[in-house]
Amino acid sequence: MLPVGIVQSMAYSESLFTALAAWSLYAVLTGRWLTAGLLASFAGLTRPVGAAVVAAVWAAAIVSYVRDSSVVRDSFVVRDAFTRDSSVRGRSVPALDSAPFWRRTLGMLLAPLGAAGYVLWVGQHTGQGPLGYLDVQAGWGNGFDGGYAFARFVADKFTSFPSALAGLGLIVGVALVIWLYVICVRQDQPLPLLVYAGIVTALALCASSYFGSKPRLLLPAFPLLLPPALALARLRTSRSAWVLGGVAVVSALYGAFWLNGSGPP
User: Fold this and answer.
1) How many structural domains compose the chain?
2) What's the pTM value of the predicted model, to 2 decimals?
3) In a domain, 255, yes or no
4) What pLDDT, in 10s, does the model give residues 194-228?
5) Distances (CA, A) of 229 to 113, 120, 180, 209
6) Which domain holds residue 249?
7) How far apart (Å, rounded) are the C-alpha atoms in residues 21 and 119?
8) For the purposes of burial, counting CB atoms within 10 Å of the CB of 185, is it exposed (0-12), middle (13-18) or buried (19 or more)?
9) Does 230 map to a domain?
10) Among 16, 75, 105, 236, which residue is least crowded by beta carbons within 10 Å?
């Protein structure tokens, strides 16, 4: 049991991390690579899941390099065709990525500095080197077991009837999260968003942390909310207001119930 003073001083950084991640991804999608790398570095200093932002930046940069190489190759093919076939005259040659190569490379190098620096700092203070961070996480009961602990937690709910309803609700909730990600893929969301949301979701669901933390760990996976947001945007304003208001009320009641009870199921 932690002292009251320590509990009251604890604060979570998901809101700050989500803001940094969102703006980093926006910078990637708009070609602002230096800004994207810097914000990804700050996100890594905020939470360990900052690795998801780094992966998104790297994935986008690698794809841009591949696209550049294919464009260069295709441009030579078209240029050579101009000298041999008059039927291709007037065909436009694809342009290279508007961002210079060095900006993308520097953005990639900046992105992991925050997470790497934090891990090294923790290792220095624990005296365990780079593995000191893992020791600290293990002390809090955090780890990655592929979802084994979470599966056991859900399975234990089916040992009695009242708790079986909670177990069923958990299965439905996990299925809903996975379904939303599948919709994101089918809607052809940009690669950085898919990489980021996929890693955040996988880390949240497959970590061996306390279950009460999982909804909080899923909060930064905001790309999962884009399909519902798109659906709401197609409704009339009045209907959207009723839907959002109803969800807000249900969420408030749910939070108040478990806050004053034994915690989430």
Assistant:
1) 3
2) 0.80
3) yes
4) 999 999 999 888 888 777 778 888 899 999 999 99
5) 33, 39, 12, 30
6) 235-265
7) 19
8) exposed
9) no
10) 236
